[in-house]
């Protein structure tokens, strides 16, 4: 179970690193997208965007340090809950804001983003609850590699869903 915990923690850290980098690459676009998701005054848009990115940067840093890993996972779980709530409220209000989680995307927010966040939340909870210990180096490398593949799949989630939707 140690390797599952390590894999889940690496997955969460990598996904948040991807999202932070993608938002930093187009910070202005990310900031402009926020009012579509959350009711925020114009003066607070950029500080809110900066806070989100700062917390996203903090997650992989804390997850990489064994003693700080629970704090990083806690920040990740809090962010995922906030993102999920914002998406659910936007969907309930009929808003078709584009997903800016992994950079510029034309894909509007939808139920699939709630599913994606739910899966990431499950990985975060598993990383928090599974027992820790000394994992074998080979198993740790395999777990980290699997996490990298999982993070790439999550970052490409919209494209994968669109691909299967077109072919069905």
What does this protein look like?
This protein has one domain. The protein is mostly helical. It is built from 7 helices and no strands. Helix 1 packs across helix 4, helix 3 packs antiparallel against helix 4 and helix 4 packs antiparallel against helix 5. The model has no long low-confidence stretch (mean pLDDT 88). One of its GO terms (cellular component) is membrane. One of its GO terms (biological process) is methylamine metabolic process. It is found in: Membrane.
Protein traits:
transmembrane; globular; 168 residues; single chain; Methylamine_util_MauE; 7 helices; 0% strand; mainly alpha
Secondary structure blueprint with pairings:
Blueprint (H helix, E strand, L loop, with lengths): L1 H24 L1 H11 L4 H23 L4 H24 L18 H19 L7 H19 L1 H11 L1
GO cellular component, one term: membrane
Pfam family, one: MauE
Membrane topology: Multi-pass membrane protein
Short characterization:
By secondary structure, this protein is mainly alpha-helical. It has helices at 2-25, 27-37, 42-64, 69-92, 111-129, 137-155, 157-167. It is found in: Membrane.
Mean pLDDT across the residues is: 88
* Share in helix: over 70%
Q: Determine the structural class based on helices, strands and strand pairing.
A: mainly alpha
Number of domains: 1
